[in-house]
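Quick illustration, no need to memorize.
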Amino acid sequence: MRNRAALSRAGVAPDRSLSEAAEDPRIHVSLQGLRSLEAAARAISFLPRQPARSALQGRYRSRIRGRGLDFEELRDYLPGDDVRAIDWKVTARAGSPYVRVYTEERDRPTLIVVDQRMSMFYGTVHNTKAVTAAECAAIVAHRVAKQGDRVGGVVFGDADIDELRPGRGRAAVTRFLTCLETANHRLTADAPKVTPMPFNDLLAAVARLATRDHLVIVISDFDACDDETERRLGAIAQHNDVVLGLVGDPSADTVPETGEVTASDGQKQTLLDFQAEDVRAGLAQVTGSRRGQVAEWQKRMRLSVLPLTTAEDTLAQVVRLLGGRVR
């Protein structure tokens, strides 16, 4: 049962052995595989200046503000200084013009939020959604660390949540990737049936870690979100730059008009008959409303959205979405 259900979720041929399925990178990630994405991650950037083809330059993009500024000193105005830097209060008291001098902060913390709930343990073409999310998160972590910024994360499943405060260097990346691997391997077809962690509980953890001036990247299928989710996400976006990685599967885009499929949550099974109009309408409504909800967030809160799919290699599509090229 476990073997058949796990392989069915990922679209893997049913004659593969259980040990082969457990090692299949389309079903579960490995620390070695996540580390191997480091070199190719140099093809992208999360700095303020983005390539023209980058999704972060989209119509409703949020401006990636980059590192903040630290006040350094007040000094006399010199010819050629930007008049916008003049401190008019000090100038009025001193009787001569003074300017405020700032230096760029050495780094900017990035918080990568990754969904590893059971709703992500599904895929029909190349990967499960959980694998695509984990690989995308690893690519981001590698690139942010190479930029000299601190990397942290929140990795959550149906019953577990791991919070990693942003840290610097390879050690911080390794902690994050190890956490990703552990959470991903909790996803099995025979995992106990539990109530999924509310998305709003996750956002409460994000708000505690990303108080202000963070880059927050949330990678999920955004299952079980509501109006409160929008309010909490908006509060985070007021003081941070927020990018949403919306992970989808091609089966959500085109519901077949004929055929049957057996769906399982690991304990129970049900037969979905695509000839039944109510079944097809229900599936279309669920997937369509979720994409529409994220599109509304993008428009109203000016968030950036990276549309990810399980149908393609993760690295190739992330690089394409951010306007880079894989060498």
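The first strand starts at residue 69 and ends at 76.
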